[in-house]
Specification:
The chain is an alpha/beta fold. About 40% of the residues lie in helices and about 20% in strands. Strand 8, helix 7 and strand 9 form a beta-alpha-beta unit. It starts with a strand and ends with a helix. The structure holds 3-isopropylmalic acid and magnesium ion.
């Protein structure tokens, strides 16, 4: 039986990077004799242009029917009007909510060969290996009311940060379970000195930590966490936090890896797929980078590593995922660089060449 993979390339550099990631997936599937069936869908700005909506019903139906989804990026200057009724980002938010993808995993690993690409001192970054788990279907991203309106004193606007204990506990539990497979340390991040939703978050986290006595547990306030993350990043293993804090901290954490172009992500829910693993949406954490779109300059490694996460988390193919990670490491070790990775005196290669090099490593490893 074939596994159904929905491919949503999106806008900007999305099609280029996903194109390479897809070829890598196909290479691994061929070598490992796994049957993957791919289906394409249009989302984001392209979908607004073609169908008048960023997330057409048909695409959502295919997403609900898929074993896993591989996504590029959405958005671009053409659809940037913040007052527009239809915005590309709504496709992402809609998919996350509709599929119940509450746990967003963003691993950050310092690659030895790229230590020089980080603006931080190499000895501070060397050895960093952490995962941020960002709650993805609640908080201020979805709370109601959320609107701009007319009030007594002119224009006013409101957003609502809502969490119930079930939402908090399930993502924290996910984190504790993951910490068990890693270095057994969990940091829960909140703003409990100011926000009610954070005080509930902290209470639930503390209660749960009693069930996981084998895990070293701590709570941190998000403002000091922003500082700790760049001052002593090696101290962290699994970091769990609410939706918006996670959005902000993961952009910051990407600096540790050297380039945002390298970082993959997995968004997982409770639902299991036909492989018996969690249905997931996998995407690089970078955006659509319209300024370099179509120029074969983008770094496909974030998308390629997202494909590796797809194999691991939605299909249970950990060994195959590891092969991809090793191939990426090997290519970087040989000194190949896309422009975002910088490096004085480096001759940069393009998106296609980078993808090809990773595939060649995979083919060499198999034969
Ligand atoms: C991310 C992005 C999205 C988010 C945007 C594009 C809506 O920044 O995935 O981190 O805020 O969740
Ligand atoms: Mg973000």
């Amino acid at each position: 039986m074939a596994y159904k993979i929905l491919v949503l390339k999106g806008d900007g550099i999305g099609p280029e990077v996903v194109g390479e990631a897809l070829q890598v997936l196909k290479t691994v599937a061929r070598e490992a004799a796994i049957d993957l069936e791919f289906r394409d869908g249009v989302i984001g700005g392209h979908a607004i242009d073609a169908h008048g909506t960023p997330l057409p019903d048909e695409v959502l139906k295919h997403a609900q029917d898929a074993d896993a989804i591989l996504l590029g990026a959405v958005g671009g200057p053409k659809w940037d009007n913040p007052n527009a009724n239809q915005r590309p980002e709504q496709a992402l938010l809609g998919l996350r909510k509709a599929l119940g993808l509450f746990a967003n995993l963003r691993p950050v690993r310092a690659v030895k060969e790229l230590l020089g690409s980080s603006p931080l001192k190499p000895d501070l970054v060397s050895g960093v290996d952490l995962v941020v788990i960002r709650e993805l279907t609640g908080g201020i991203y979805y709370g109601q009311p959320s609107e701009k309106r007319r009030g007594k004193e002119g224009r006013e606007a409101v957003d609502t940060c809502f969490y119930n204990e079930h939402e908090i506990a399930r993502v924290l539990r996910f984190g504790f379970e993951l910490a068990r497979e890693r270095r057994k340390k969990l940091t829960s991040v909140d703003k409990a000195n100011v926000m009610s939703s954070s005080r509930l978050w902290r209470e639930v986290a503390l209660e749960l930590s009693n069930e996981y006595k084998d895990i070293a547990f701590e709570s941190q306030l998000v403002d000091s966490m922003a500082m700790h993350l760049i001052r002593r990043p090696k101290d962290f293993d699994v970091i769990v936090t609410e939706n918006m804090f996670g959005d902000i901290l993961t952009d910051e954490a990407s600096v540790l890896a050297g380039s945002m172009g390298l970082l993959p992500s997995a968004s997982l829910g409770e639902e299991l797929n036909s492989a018996g693993f969690r249905v997931g949406l996998f995407e690089p954490i970078h955006g659509s980078a319209p300024d370099i779109a179509g120029r074969d300059e983008a770094n496909p490694l974030g998308a390629i590593l997202s494909a590796a996460m797809l194999l691991e988390h939605s299909l249970g193919l950990r060994a195959e995922a590891e092969l991809i990670t090793q191939a990426v490491d090997a290519v970087l070790k040989e000194g190949h660089r896309t422009r975002d990775l910088g490096g004085a005196g480096t001759k940069f290669i393009g998106c296609k060449a980078m993808g090809r090099l990773v595939r060649e490593k995979l083919e060499a490893a198999e034969s």
